[in-house]
UniProtKB/TrEMBL annotation:
GO biological processes: L-histidine biosynthetic process
Pfam families in alphabetical order: Histidinol_dh
Protein name according to UniProt: Histidinol dehydrogenase
NCBIfam families noted in UniProt: hisD
Origin species: Thermanaerovibrio acidaminovorans (strain ATCC 49978 / DSM 6589 / Su883)
Length: 424
């Protein structure tokens, strides 16, 4: 693999170093556990300069925000939500209950698919109102059948209210339990509960390193989707429009100075065209300061000797987003094992997945796609197994279970098994 552009920052933080804020987050969590709403409000005053006196966002505030939304924006939200809902419904249909069936004489096994009772969705504030994140989190939870969906999102810095477009979107999606809470404070509140926020069963959603570390520390008390780092895209291209590729790389770069865009191509000529186009675009977009920092510090352009080398690199990197602009993609897709979401062909822009195509944009980063996929309707569902054993079935199970229990030295286990055979 020939390096045509290397990152300026060689050592990206590992997941253990990424946080570097574990003690501070632990302190925040303990403060929220001890002081509840007051701690969350103090966090909002400290970090967002808010003077709000309640973390609950009243339904009337949600309704006002909904009424104030630009009609075209509201229609876009409905379009995106419809696609996300359609795909989530189809995914749910693939995870079916299993009726009891006989696996041995007199031994019947089955499972039910049941939603969690409650979930918390976190919608970051920061530099941009992440309207799309509200859609990506709330819709699959609703399709799964979660009875209670609560949302936390911080106030806009220097104001007393979260972004109205986010509030209006949540109301459009039927989420009316909304709290003006941000960062690790919000995660701690949803995990442990406060006077206003009853604790939830699962917390999902992206966020900065404080949010991510808080989710990691609260895991076990609650379920989480996964621990995520900065956003990333890998583009494998044998061919393609250099303009498309350049825009897609910078669409990731403008997320965050730590975001990562990588191009692996079998065409050095295409690589040079893309790098030239990137520089041109950086001179035109208002997000250039963040995008340039990301591109210069973490962007890479690599020339592969062939597709075999490109595929091997992709499987090692395990990217969040993987774009495939190659001849005969169906030949290579079966060999690609590790990615959060795959975008096939030059017209399958990663940003379509961010917003409107219907697949979820909450995806594993930092190599986590080696062991998990992205958020989906199944994130909010539990598979609950059951067994039903007849008197006849218990005889054989008792013999085998007693032998195994005795070998493990667990004599009450052995006795519980044999009791069924003696009274059979």
């Amino acid at each position: 693999m020939k390096v045509l552009k290397s990152p300026r920052v060689k050592d990206r933080a590992s997941s253990s170093d990424l946080y570097g804020v574990s003690h501070e987050v632990r302190r925040i969590i303990d403060w929220v556990v001890l002081h509840g709403d007051r701690a969350v409000l103090e966090g909002s005053r400290l970090h967002d300069r808010s003077s709000r006196d309640s973390i609950l966002v009243p339904v009337e505030e949600l309704q006002r925000a909904h009424r104030s939304m630009d009609p075209e924006l509201l229609e876009a939200v409905r379009y995106a939500a419809s696609n996300v809902e359609t795909f989530a419904q189809r995914q749910k249909g693939a995870l079916m209950p299993l009726e009891e069936s006989e696996v041995r004489d007199g031994v019947y096994l089955g499972h039910r698919v049941v939603p969690v009772d409650s979930c918390g969705i976190y919608i970051p504030g920061g530099s941009y109102p992440l309207i799309s994140t509200a859609v990506m989190l709330a819709v699959p939870a609703r399709v799964a059948g979660v009875g209670r969906i609560c949302a936390c999102t911080p106030v806009r810095r220097g104001t007393n209210s979260p972004d109205p477009s986010v509030l209006g979107t949540l109301y459009e999606l039927g989420v009316t339990e909304v709290y003006a809470a941000g960062g690790a404070y919000a995660v701690a509140a949803m995990a442990h509960g406060t006077e206003s926020i009853p604790p939830v069963d699962v917390i999902v959603g992206p966020g900065n390193k404080y949010v991510t570390e808080a989710k990691r520390q609260c895991f076990g008390k609650v379920g989480i989707d996964f621990v995520a780092g900065p956003s990333e895209v890998l583009i494998i291209a044998q061919e393609g429009d250099p303009d498309f590729i350049a825009w897609d790389l910078l669409a990731q770069a403008e997320h965050d100075p730590d975001a990562k865009g990588v191009l692996v191509t079998t065409s050095p000529a295409l690589a040079r065209q893309v790098m030239d186009r990137v520089e041109t675009i950086l001179g035109e977009i208002v997000t250039s300061p963040v995008a340039r920092s990301s591109w210069e510090d973490h962007g890479e352009v690599l020339a592969a000797e062939g597709m075999d080398e490109a595929v091997e690199f992709s499987n090692r990197m395990a990217p969040e987003h993987l774009e495939l602009m190659v001849q005969d993609p169906d030949r290579w897709i079966p060999r690609l094992r590790n990615y959060g979401a795959l975008f096939i062909g030059e017209h399958s822009a990663e940003v379509f997945g961010d917003y409107a195509s219907g697949s979820n944009h909450t995806l594993p980063t930092a190599g986590a796609s080696r062991y998990t996929g992205g958020l989906w309707v199944g994130t909010f569902l539990k598979v609950l197994t059951s067994q039903r054993v007849t008197r006849e079935g218990a005889r054989e199970l008792a013999r085998v279970s007693a032998l195994l229990a005795q070998a493990e030295g667990l004599m009450a286990h052995r006795g519980a098994a044999l009791a069924r055979s003696r009274k059979g």
